Amino acid sequence: MTASRHRRFLRGPVAGLLLLAAQLVFGQGTETPGVETNAASRADLERLGATIRAIHITVDNVFDLSNPEEDKRLYRWANRVHILTRESAIASVLLFQVGDRFSGRQLDESARTLRNRGYLAAATVEPRNYDAATNSVEVEVRVRDSWTLAPDVRLSRSGGKNKYTIGISDSNTLGTGKKVTALHSSNVDRNETLLGYTDANVLGSRVTLNVAGADTTDGHRRELEAERPFYSLDTRWALGGALLDQQRVDTMYDLGHEIDEFRHDTKLLSLSGGVSRGVVGNQTQRWLFGVKSDEDTFLPTDATPVPLLLPQDRKLVYPWIGWQLLVDDYREMSELNDIGRTEDISLGWSVSATLGFAKRRFGSDRDATVFESAVQKGWETGGPGRLLLISADASTRLEHDESRNTQVSATARYFRRNLERNLFSVSLSALATERLDPENQVLLGGDNGLRGYPLRYQAGERRVILNVEQRFYTDWYPWRLFRVGYAVFADAGRVSGRDPRANPSLGTLCDVGMGLRLSSPRSSGRNVVHIDLAFPLNRTPTIDRSQLVVETRSSF
């Protein structure tokens, strides 16, 4: 495998401050002549049975110094101190090697996987230089790094409550693609000090590892997960396991106020695997299996020695089987959920279902059948620039011929391009439950879509939320660090049914508002900062006339 790396070593002054600011609130060369990279040329290469004779990996730095707007002291300094991603880290993600038969699908999936790595801002994978004499082709892999090492300081406010995170993280430690995190955070539920390590390719293999340990004001959390996953559509087998040990205090809410609490201890052990025939046509089917032990213990707290509703202890030990269908149908889009980045949107069917059988003889405290399912699909409807995405989930636990903790949810999102590059968005989501376990609540408020109201404002058994938004994407690119957008929006939602601990529903609640959006294509991750000012239209004297919401979300 051959490779080229672009390095710039120039100095500059105050530099890091603005670059670090981009991280706190949330990078080409000449083209090699050869086979054109359209669908027809790829089809020809596959028809001819061409092989891959060489792979060229180019890692571009965070800033493009060939662009006069970026050939400045700040950006030269940033490029100099930034450690480029190692070629071995990129190679470990690719789904092909030298000598393999050319497959356009593998190139496309490799590019999507690279773009999904938070430490990369952009990635392309294209064939080049077809040689008829050897019936072979070269593949050029080009990526642009994100800035990954920085203090992580985030302040946010929603539903009248503040939260913050402070610490340091690096999602591309020494250019290896490994993530190291040390953070302290505070939110409405608890304060937490976290140390974590994530490795998506252990020792260059396909094995993933995630380790996290957190001490909290109400307990602790210990996580360990190791897996050889279905890392591509054509992967034939998967195997893995996970451990979770957690102690916390669960707080119940009504009208934005704490009304009940209890201690909740969780011990989880899971072993899972799967087999597949790989890609057949444009789809993959997988058979899944595993065994799971899930133990939940509930106790009163010192502050609330007699909870209003204390859940019963529960232990489920069960083998399970499952099935999954994935259809390979993706579109590359931009200015949808982010600003200035390529987004890979799946329009193909994604369907999964699992069925587990808990028995006392396995160690459970009851006999139960556990069922979970999920489905997703997308359509480009009514011409270009119109997109409909749907998803639905369902889960239940059948005990003594009676369903428990049944939850059925569905979401539909519609996007339509208008006013040139801008976007009209409508999202409708619904959740229905039956005989919900007492530690779970169906809540509506400022933290889940009703931006003009306090967080966790209403509680019930069913919930519907409608969000309508006109999004504006601008060309404003301050200091070449931030992309700027804005939006006007309206939200409506209601809960129905009765949470026995809460007041009756107040009916349909509505708000309107406007907001600023900030995204940094230079920093790692896919975070968008939201600064919203929302006005409740069904205000009661107990809530403010307006709500300021400042939060970091994964989409526009």
Tell me about this structure.
By secondary structure, the chain is mainly β. The chain has 2 domains: 2-145, Ubiquitin-like (UB roll); 156-199 and 252-553, Beta Barrel (Porin), CATH 2.40.160. Helices cover 8% and strands 53% of the residues. It is built from 5 helices and 28 strands. The protein has helices spanning 16-24, 39-48, 73-81, 87-91, 104-115; strands at 2-5, 51-60, 120-131, 136-145, 150-158, 161-170, 179-186, 191-199, 208-216, 219-228, 237-254, 257-280, 283-299, 314-327, 330-333, 343-346, 350-358, 368-380, 386-399, 402-418, 422-434, 442-444, 458-460, 462-473, 483-496, 509-519, 528-536, 547-553. The chain has a 20-stranded antiparallel sheet. The two termini are 39 Å apart. Mean pLDDT is 89; it is low at 1-40.
- Structural class comes to mainly beta
Residue share in helices?
under 10%
Mean pLDDT: 89
> Separation of termini?
39 Å
Beta strand %: over 45%
* Assigned CATH architecture of the largest domain: Beta Barrel
Total helices: the number is 5
CATH class annotation of the largest domain: Mainly Beta
Give the count of structural domains.
2
Poorly predicted parts: 1-40
Shape: globular
CATH topology label of the largest domain? Porin
Instruction: Tell me the quaternary state.
Output: single chain
